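Sorry, I am new here, but would you mind making up a protein's amino acid sequence and the tokens describing how it folds?
***
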Amino acid sequence: MNPITAPTAEKHLTSSAILQDIVIGLSDGLTVPFALAAGLSGAVQSSGLVITAGLAEIVAGSIAMGLGGYLAGRTEVDHYAAELAREHEEVRTVPDVERREVQELFVEMGLSEATATQATNELVKDPEQWVKFMMKYELGLEQPDPKQAFKSAITIAGAYAVGGLIPLSAYFLTATPHAGLLWSGLITLVCLLVFGFFKSRLTGQAPIAGAIKMAATGAAAAAAAFYVARLVQGQSI
């Protein structure tokens, strides 16, 4: 029985975490390098400079995003470990208080006083299960995967790199930055619409509105960067 149910739950949790990391990395990867390339397109006359700066940003952005994902994952693991140690300590030092809290939780779940008392008596016989119960139902904490921090770092960094290469790819195939910007804008706009649509469906939001919002965010960032670059160069829009 356990070999069937336990892996299924773990797979579900892992898949959700990976999907979330992909969304984080890809959404930033599509917008930030695109805005940078757009800004440079308004300031330089060489596609090579846009490509070089874009690749440098993608590398730096991937590392920064991956490191952020790793630190977030480690923080979650460390927080859970600290709370787990505190619960173990409280079960040892103030068992009566913890026992009363367990019974109150059972009552809040809808059990009668008599049934809650019986359930509490059974649960507190096993200190490990007692602590796990308090972690989940009192603190609302699920035990994180200790390997998830590294997985998140790799997933976020990879998704960011993939997202960043999409708008930059147009500059490899065009002769001037302005031509690259036009194709990059078209490619990125389509990708943002598609990504925003599916992201909104997965998160239970309105798909069309989510697609438009995602595309508008990327377009606004690129337009602002392009406008600022032109102003710095003293050129008209």
Observations:
- Residues 1-14 have pLDDT under 50 and may be disordered.
- Residues 47-93 form the longest helix (47 residues).
- The radius of gyration is 25 Å.
